[in-house]
Design goal:
Radius of gyration of chain A: 14 Å
Number of helices of chain A: 2
Number of strands of chain A: 6
Shape of chain B: elongated
Oligomer: heterodimer
Largest interface: A-B, 52 and 35 residues
Shape of chain A: globular
Radius of gyration of chain B: 20 Å
Structural class of chain A: alpha+beta
Distance between the termini of chain B: 48 Å
Distance between the termini of chain A: 10 Å
Helix content of chain B: 55-70%
Strand order of the largest sheet of chain A: 3-2-1-4-6-5
Chain lengths: 131, 91
């Protein structure tokens, strides 16, 4: 699966919200996440949770998760925390493979300085609601 | 760096991840759990002299991950069942 959540701001109204998307890859399994997912092959869009309708909204932050479709929420959380402990002192974007998962996170300086972990929690919360 | 300073830095990171782990479960640390961290942090902080406290504050500022002022990306229209990604780099 490719599970992603992104905080967006509407250019005309300034409204801010988190949109989340779940793409699936039926019939595909992996032990190492394929390189083509998500940028070249996002998968087939299965579900969305839209707070601010696209298109054209500016992205302020995003969390990308590439993981086997059958992964449990608990396993995903464990992998995410392990990933975050590895990258927390590096500059954004954070991008690394953790087991069968790949995580990628980026956010603007204002969100990062307000507390990157709060933003990650907000994005992850919106994303896992789609699982 | 003193042991107190090392422990202080470890605890700051520990508190951040404890909060995050709980938030990922849709909950928060209890006041009692927060209090335990804060009391331990205060204790290690008070063991340090002024110069070391200043060094720790500077180190924590430096540990903030660098981030761009703005991301160069916009969202895109997507349809359930489609295969388009949800964002693109701004032109």
């Amino acid at each position: 699966m490719y599970l992603t959540a992104q905080r967006v701001v509407a250019p005309k109204t300034g409204e801010i919200g988190i949109n989340a998307f779940l793409y699936l890859h039926p019939g595909r399994t992996w032990t190492v996440p394929p390189n083509e997912i998500p940028d070249k092959v996002p998968g087939r869009l299965k579900k969305t949770n839209i707070a601010i309708p696209p298109p054209g909204n500016r992205i302020r932050s995003y969390l990308d998760i590439v993981a086997p479709d059958e992964i449990s929420g608990e396993e995903l959380k464990r992998r995410l925390l392990t990933f975050l402990k590895r990258v927390e002192r590096q500059p954004f974007p954070w991008d690394a493979v953790e087991g069968a998962c790949r995580f990628r996170i980026e956010m603007d300086a204002q969100l990062a300085s307000a507390g990157w972990s709060k933003e990650v929690a907000a994005l992850a919360g919106a994303a896992v609601e789609l699982m | 760096m003193s042991t107190a300073a090392d422990r202080y830095l470890d605890l700051i990171s520990g508190l951040r991840f404890a909060r995050l782990e709980r938030e990922l479960d849709g909950a928060t640390l209890s006041q009692c759990e927060e209090r335990e961290y804060i009391d331990a942090l205060d204790s290690f902080w008070n063991e340090m002299d002024h110069d070391e406290q200043e060094r720790i504050e500077s180190l924590l500022r430096d540990r903030m991950p660098n981030a761009p002022s703005e991301l160069e990306a916009k969202d895109t229209d997507v349809d359930v069942g489609g295969q388009a990604g949800p964002r693109r780099e701004a032109a």
